[in-house]
């Protein structure tokens, strides 16, 4: 009886810094998507001011993804080489900078250049976040870790519609709303540097129980790994699951970013929504996605903990 009581006390006093770090990652990714969504929300006003054709609007909206896609693998390499903390902090500061300087753009070309910079700066956040997930979370916690990381996408898209639309309405300028969003992002980058650490033992808030909980789980996981893994990136493409995940993620993104980039313009032009109504409609869609992600991550971890096959 005494042993059981002591075990319960030990469990109760274990620190939970890993969850706080991933709540911070949720915040950073949400800010990431607020900044991405800002142009979509402001595009009806920008298109009118710059006299942009629908084709030019599409070019500017899509330009973000050119550098974002190109920098995904380099972003992961940076996280491996320089550790996730500095990559996450630097990426956040730089994409805040590009978000803010979009406010001084006077034509389509300058706006396109800021979007290219924004895409390159935002690219490392997911690879570095995935690295943190592997370092800080146990095997049966990574579903929720990944959910908190990725859940920032629909949460940021939902909040971005309201925040940017609200800032434009209150400040009377899409330019000032971009400055406020950019400065807020830069400040968030400094907060990330202050709190995030590359490993549990480096963080002053992690007690011995939490550190051992993570290390022992990793030791069990590593002991079960095949001994013949080469570690070469190209070897991942030998696995069917990698191709299936890439294909499913591509299909998901086609829908998600279709809604994120073009829906505000559609609601404004085709349905006659004003700025506030458009923000509310976007909020409902993407907040539903955020709730679905949280529930899905919890189910995935519980399923795996119970012995379920992850692919199911």
Task: Describe this protein with a few key phrases.
Growth Hormone, Chain: A, 13 helices, mainly alpha, 79% helix
Walk me through this protein's architecture:
The protein is mostly helical. It has one domain (15-200, 237-305): Growth Hormone, Chain: A (Up-down Bundle), CATH 1.20.1250.20. The protein has 13 helices and no strands. Helix 2 (17-50) runs antiparallel to helix 10, helix 3 (54-70) packs parallel to helix 6 (108-122) and helix 5 (84-101) runs antiparallel to helix 6 (108-122). It is globular and about 60 Å long.
Write the layout of secondary structure elements.
Elements: H1 2-12, H2 17-50, H3 54-70, H4 72-82, H5 84-101, H6 108-122, H7 125-136, H8 142-150, H9 152-171, H10 174-195, H11 208-223, H12 240-269, H13 275-305
Count of distinct strands = 0
Computed Rg: 21 Å
Fourth-tier CATH superfamily name: MFS general substrate transporter like domains
CATH class, anyone? Mainly Alpha
Q: What is the average per-residue confidence, as pLDDT, rounded to a whole number? A: 86
Residue windows where pLDDT falls under 50 for at least 5 positions: none
What is the tally of helical segments? 13
- Helix percent reads over 70%
Largest sheet report: none
Examine the secondary-structure arrangement and name the CATH architecture.
Up-down Bundle
């Amino acid at each position: 009886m005494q042993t059981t009581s002591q075990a319960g006390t030990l469990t109760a006093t274990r620190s939970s810094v890993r969850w706080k770090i991933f709540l911070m990652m949720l915040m950073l990714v949400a800010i990431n998507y607020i900044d991405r969504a800002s142009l979509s929300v402001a595009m009806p006003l920008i298109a009118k001011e710059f006299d942009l054709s629908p084709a030019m609007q599409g070019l500017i909206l899509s330009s973000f993804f050119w550098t974002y896609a190109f920098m995904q693998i380099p972003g992961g390499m940076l996280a491996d080489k320089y550790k996730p903390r500095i990559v996450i902090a630097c990426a956040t500061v730089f994409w805040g900078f590009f978000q803010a300087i979009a406010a001084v753009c006077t034509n389509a070309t300058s706006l396109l250049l800021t979007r290219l910079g924004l895409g390159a700066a935002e690219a490392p956040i997911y690879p570095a976040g995935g690295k943190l997930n592997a370092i800080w979370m146990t095997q049966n916690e990574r579903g929720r870790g990944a959910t908190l990381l990725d859940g920032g996408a629909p949460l940021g898209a939902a909040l971005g519609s309201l925040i940017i639309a609200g800032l434009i309405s209150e400040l009377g300028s899409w330019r000032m709303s971009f400055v406020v969003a950019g400065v807020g992002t830069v400040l968030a980058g400094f907060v990330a540097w202050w709190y995030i650490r590359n490993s549990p033992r480096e963080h002053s808030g992690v007690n011995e129980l939490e550190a051992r909980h993570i290390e022992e789980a990793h030791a069990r996981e590593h002991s079960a790994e095949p001994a013949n893994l080469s570690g070469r990136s190209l070897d991942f493409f030998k696995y069917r699951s990698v191709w299936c995940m890439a294909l499913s993620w591509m299909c998901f993104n086609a829908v998600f970013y279709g809604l994120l980039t073009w829906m505000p313009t559609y609601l404004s032009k085709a349905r006659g929504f004003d700025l506030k109504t458009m923000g509310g409609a976007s909020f409902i869609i993407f907040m539903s996605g955020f709730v679905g992600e949280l529930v899905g991550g919890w189910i995935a971890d519980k399923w795996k903990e119970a012995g379920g096959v992850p692919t199911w």
